[in-house]
Each structure stands twice: as C-alpha cells, then as structure tokens.
Design brief:
heterodimer, A: mainly alpha, MetI-like fold, 2 domains, globular, B: two-stranded antiparallel sheet, 12 helices, about 0% strand
C-alpha cells in the first residue's frame, strides 16, 4: 500500500493526470455554479457597471450599497420590500411544517412498524395513495378550503396543509423496522406503555432518519412558490420565494439590488446544503433506492 | 367424539374468536389514534379535495367558486375540442423533451466526473450538487439577468462567437427554450446526487473483472455502468417528467405563460383558468387530466421498481 502510494507520488505522468483531473473538476464546478457566482458578483456592483458593455463578470468598483439599500428599505415602516418579513415568514412556516411532519409521520410510522392491528394493509395503501396525488391537482379545492376557513394571509394557511406526509411516513417506517423487534417485546413485557416505547426508545434511536426528514421537508417548504403565491395577498405575509420574484418585477432595472436580494434568500439553503449534506442526500436518494 | 365434547369445543372456539375480535377492535382503535393526525390531514387536504375536484369539474361555477348549474361533461368536451388546451398539452410535452433527456445526460457526466476517490472530492461534489439549494424562483431570477438581451452575458458570449442571440424570454420562438435552460440547471443538483449514489452502489469487482477481461473506458461505461445504473436513470426519467408536468414557478416567474401562450404549460393553464379567469369548473377538469397523467407515471414507476426488486 505505502509503496504504491509512494510510487504514485513520484510517478510524474500520474501526477500530471491527477493535476489535469483537478483542473477539469475545478472548471466544471465553476461552470455549474456560474449563475450563483454571477448573482454574488452582481450584488456588489453599481448599476452603471452592470449596464456597461461588455457585460462585466467581476465588480470593477465593489460596493455594499445594494445590501445597504435592501436592509434600509426593509427596516423602513410600511416598506415595499420587507425582506426580513419574507425571511421570518419562510422560516416560521418551514419550521412549523418540519415539526408537524415529524410528529404526524413518526406516530403513523410507529403504528405501521410495531403495532398489530386489523386493516393495516388497507390503511398503508391509503398512505401510499397520497403519493400519487400531485398537489397541483387538488389546489383549487384546497384554496377554497383555506379561503373559507379565513386562513388567507396566515401562517396556518401556509403550513397546515403540508403537515402530514406519506413520503416521510415511509422513510421513518423503514428506519423503525431496522430496530430489533426484541426491544419492543422486552419493553412491552416490562409493562412500558406503547407510547413510552416510541418516545423513549424508538425516536432517540432513529435520529438519523428524523434528521433526514427534517432537512428534506425544511428545504421543500422553504422553496415553495405556487401555494404561498395563492394564499398570501399582503406583502408582509409573502414568503421569500414569492418576494424575490415580486422584487424583480417591481425593480426591473435595479439588477444589483435584485441580486443582493437573491444572495440573501439563497444563503440559508446553501448553509443547509453544506451542513446537512449527508441527511439531504439520504432523503433525496431514498426514493431512488427504495422506489 | 361425543356430542357434548363437540359442543364444548364449539363454545370454546366461539369464545376464543370473540376474544380475538375484541382484541382486534382494541388494537385497531389504538392504531387509529396514532394514525389519526395524518389521516385527518390527508382527508382534508388530499382525498376530499380530490373528490371535490371531480365534483367541480361537472359544474359551472360563479366567481367565488360555488357551483351554479350542472355542466355534465361539457368541460371535458371542451377540453377535447379546445385548440388552446391541446396547445398547452403539446407545450408541456415539448417542455419535457427539452429538459428531461438533456438534464439527465449532463447530470450523468457530472456524476461520472465526481465518482472517484480523490482528496477534496467532497468540495467538488458540493459544487456539482449546489443547485439543489437553489429554488426555482431564485434560479429564474438569476437567469432572467443572464438571458437579458441587452445587458445579459449570454448574448454577449454568443455575439463573441458571431452568433446573434435571440430575445430569449420575450420571443415566442425562444421562450420555452429559455425556461427549459433554467429548469435543466435548477434540477442538475438533484439529478447528479441520485446518479452519484447509483454509481457508488455498483460493486467494484464488476469493474475489476471487466478490466481483467480486457475491457476499457467507453466499453466498460456502456456495458457495465449504464446497465447497472438503469434503475436510477429510469427513476430520474419518471420523476423529471412528473416535475415537468407540475411546473409552475419558473413559468410564473419568467414568462407568465407568454409570449402568446408559448410557455402556457398545463399547470399554468390551470392557474390562469382557476385564479385569473375564475372558471373553477373548467380548471378542475384540466386538473383531473393532470392527475391522470401523473397517476399513470407513478404507477409505471412503482411497477418497474417492483419488478426490479423481485429480480434482484
């Protein structure tokens, strides 16, 4: 082993190949992330530079003016660009959906994984069926429901419809089934209630799966567009995604300002990607592996 | 066996069955308590709305969405004969054709490139998958800048190689292509991650024995990598087509279905008819077409995955 590695290092064609590979990987990385890098770069540009020809790639006179203006406007009372409200709304709604899904999905997954009861397969199929109904196909009655409940422009209108999840239930059930069955039998013999077994044993042992579901559903909710567009009218209740599109239509000539908004909106999810990459990858590939 | 004995056994059996039934009922009630939160939400936001969509599709509605007069199958007849709806379906298929194969091929190239053991490879993988952190709304906003005909980089770069770029989003002949470019980029991260996971699950020995047999490079890729990757590729194909049929954000953020309906895909058409024209009945009929298409795609996916699992 050590010899081969030493050989690799002294072998110059191998070294050249490796450097070439790094160059290729770097160039491809820049190409894939190019739109993001452009957004970042333009957010530091003054409008005069943005409209100059040829179009710039890096700021000639880097400035924080765009960010300052976004923040100034956000803090002005009755602001037409309440970006902090957008962030707060998206954060509250996404967090509420994550908590809701963790509760409903772990309760349901526990019943499917551990409890014996008649009609289990029919009920399981009911959960399965929800995966085949696209949200867009039921969006009209759902909008009417939220309107009739007078939940337009409220957090509950944005969050409650998404608090149950067929996908998350499967994910957690799969993970619960990995736990040794003896644990359950022993706990029941010891007289522990079934709920206590869920709370004290199953959930702590299933932290990775719960983390996967949490990261996945946070990202999915944070990135929603159609539903928040429908059920919010007041600017102050908009979520970040609706807000950023609105900003572009309202400030169509202020690209630097719009890109500063883009950067602010995208930072939380980039952080989530970097910090929760493992959970996220597991969540995204769960479908591919499990079907 | 005497009659008395038989009767006793019969009585005992009946008692046992009764007891078991009682326990079954108790188990069911307890299980339902655990399932209740999910079932309640599914009922209110999935199953009842689905039934209501069917119901609404059979009625004419007033602008607030209440049924006013039975329409029978009128809306469906209109769908079958409406050139606008046919155009919308055709646009959706075109959109799928523009985004899905290209998007998967690019993601495959990235995944192959990222699938090696190398110091620091995780940094590159993060870059390659970075677009999963980017919402379609954000992607659309950035691409609107890059595709801008007067100040955008795209047409400048095209110009520097002597090509006169189109007006992209505002030209009916290039608007769908523009929206497709945004979509391909925004889905790249997800596709790459799925394919990379697929590549990593191919056993090393397969490659080694192929090398011993004298196979190399492209031959290995064609005869080992692609067949072993086919479940992931198939999964992505179906999921990406489903996403195209659900596409709304990038259309609303960039073109609002225009210019002259060039990007009026299925979900956007539902949105316009329901929430701009207030024809909830007609829009509901379209929503059911959407539901049928996606149901069929999902069943195909489950069916194939099921077969794959059995054969393994």
């Amino acid at each position: 082993m050590a010899l081969t590695r030493l050989g690799d290092r002294t072998n110059s064609p191998e070294l050249g190949r490796r450097l070439g590979l790094y160059a290729l990987l770097s160039l491809t990385s820049i190409a894939v992330a190019f739109p993001l890098l452009i957004a970042l770069s333009y957010s530091f540009m003054v409008e005069r530079d943005i409209t100059s020809f040829p179009p710039p790639i890096l700021p000639a006179n880097a400035t924080l003016a765009n960010y300052r203006e976004v923040f100034d406007r956000a803090l002005r009372p009755g602001s037409p660009l309440p970006i902090f409200h957008y962030l707060l709304n998206s954060f509250v709604v996404s967090t509420a959906v994550v908590i809701g899904q963790l509760v409903t999905a772990s309760l349901a997954a526990y019943a499917f994984a551990f409890l014996p009861f008649p009609g289990k397969s029919v009920l399981f199929l009911t959960f399965l069926a929800t995966l085949m109904v696209p949200w867009e196909a039921t969006i009209i009655p759902n909008y009417l429901t939220i309107r009739d409940l007078q939940w337009v422009d409220t957090y509950q209108g944005l969050a409650v419809p998404f608090m149950a999840t067929g996908f998350g239930t499967f994910l957690l059930r799969q993970s619960f089934l990995q736990l040794p069955r003896d644990l359950y039998d022993a706990a029941v013999v010891d007289g522990a209630s079934r709920f206590r077994f869920l709370w004290q044993i199953v959930l702590p042992l299933s932290r990775p799966a719960l983390g996967t579901l949490a990261v996945y559903s946070f990202l999915a909710t944070w990135n929603q567009y159609f539903w928040p567009l429908l059920v919010t009218n007041q600017p102050i209740m908009r979520t970040v995604q609706v807000g950023i599109v609105q900003l572009r239509f309202e400030e169509s000539l202020r690209w630097g300002l719009v890109m500063a908004g883009v950067v602010i909106v995208v930072i939380p999810t980039i952080l989530l990607l970097v910090l929760g990459q493992r959970q996220l990858v597991r969540g995204l590939t769960a479908g591919a592996i499990k079907g | 066996m005497t009659q008395v004995q038989t009767a006793t056994i019969g009585r005992l059996g009946a008692a046992a069955i009764r007891k078991r039934r009682a326990r079954g009922a108790r188990d069911l009630i307890e299980a339902l308590l655990y399932l209740a939160p999910s079932l309640l939400l599914f009922a209110v936001f999935v199953f009842i709305p689905l039934a209501r969509t069917v119901y609404l599709s059979l009625f004419y509605t007033n602008p607030v969405g209440n049924p006013r007069g039975f329409a029978g199958l009128d809306h469906y007849v209109e769908l079958a004969t409406s050139p606008a709806f046919h155009r919308s379906l055709l646009t959706t298929f075109q959109f799928a054709l523009y985004t899905v194969p290209g998007g998967i091929v690019i993601a495959l190239l990235l995944a192959v490139l990222a699938n090696r053991r190398l110091r620091g490879i995780n940094v590159f993988r993060t870059f390659f998958s970075s677009t999963i952190a980017v919402s379609l709304a954000v992607a659309a906003t950035i691409w609107a800048l890059m595709l801008n005909p007067s100040i955008g980089l795209f047409n400048y770069l095209l110009g520097s190689i002597g090509v006169r770029g189109p007006a992209w989003l505002t030209d009916p002949s290039s608007a769908l292509v523009s929206v497709s470019l945004v979509t391909i980029w925004a889905t790249l991260g997800f596709n790459m991650i799925v394919l990379l996971a697929g590549l990593q699950s191919i056993p090393e020995e397969l490659y080694e024995s192929a090398k011993i047999d004298g196979a190399a490079g492209l031959k290995i890729f064609r005869h080992i990598t692609i067949p072993m990757l086919s479940p992931s590729l198939f999964f992505l194909l179906v999921v990406n087509i489903i996403h195209v049929f659900q596409a709304f954000t990038q259309i609303h953020a960039l073109t609002r279905g225009g210019p002259v309906d060039a990007t009026n895909v299925l979900v956007y058409s539902i949105y316009l008819d329901a929430f701009v024209n207030f024809q909830f009945g007609f829009a509901s009929a379209q929503a059911l077409v959407l539901f049928t298409i996606i149901l069929a795609l999902t069943l195909v996916q489950f069916g194939v995955v099921e077969r794959r699992v059995h054969y393994q």
